[in-house]
Amino acid sequence: MSGPPLTVLLTGAGGQLGQELVAQCPAGVTLIATGRSELDLADAQACRQLVLERRPDWVLNAGAYTAVDRAESEPELAEAVNAGAPQALAAALAGTGGRLLHLSTDFVFDGRQGSPYATDQLRSPLGVYGASKAAGEEALLASSLLADGRVHVLRTSWVYGPVGRNFCLTMLRLHGEKEEIGVVADQVGCPTATPTLAAACWRLIERAEVGLPDILHWSDAGAASWYDFAVAIGELGVELGLLQRQARVKPITTADYPTPARRPSYSLLDCTASRTALGLEPLHWREALRQVLGRLVP
User: Fold this and answer.
1) Is residue 117 annotated as part of the catalytic site, yes or no?
2) Which of 131, 136, 219, 283 could disulfide-link 83, Cβ–Cβ 3.0 to 4.6 Å?
3) CB 117 within 8 A of CB 268
4) Is residue 188 a part of any domain in this protein?
């Protein structure tokens, strides 16, 4: 990374995105990687105190409460982690002069418009998880950091990678265990691989001095349903030798697979302006998937 050395405090370092951010950390960056054992994001005072003690140039807030269905029965915890923590981090950074990059989600939208969401569209979350992430965004955009251009919200969608618990790894396992898998086909968005998302995060930090929008969108290119994604995982799994055969994937509806939390039926993000601002060309989601699965090949 060009320019003077930077100190970056990373939250969620043990998560699937956090591990990729650590792996891709550029030369010239001193990374303070914190996971749950180092920082409890539900503890606002701990968040403020760590920033005041370490005084990083950036906080990269990749940590979040992401259990979409469990959030319906744990709203206070989801709110504390997804809204309280970024607010506390921003409050501390206001005094130290640092900057904040906060990861957010397509779930701040309700999915009813049927076309890609622009960065400036109104939030209208359907469930507790989306509402808690929307509250986090709103707190940051009301903070004093905004006027100085020191806070950026990066929304993304359907994140998966070669580690952790995610749809891709679950489907890969089920393809190997089942003859048939039922997968929802009436929810549309775009899978986003952690390697491409991590690259976008680091590029944003690199380019922030030249001026970037307050809210950006990043996903891989194209569109897919969960059904499409599951079929591709099976096909590429066989092609790469991770599977001996793929299961039949049966398209089902959201109504066929009820969950505690409602999900947007169409949550594609319009990433055009953000890709231009970051100077990054996206990979199609299927090619990004091939690269992620390729990392699992022994």
Assistant:
1) no
2) 136
3) yes
4) yes
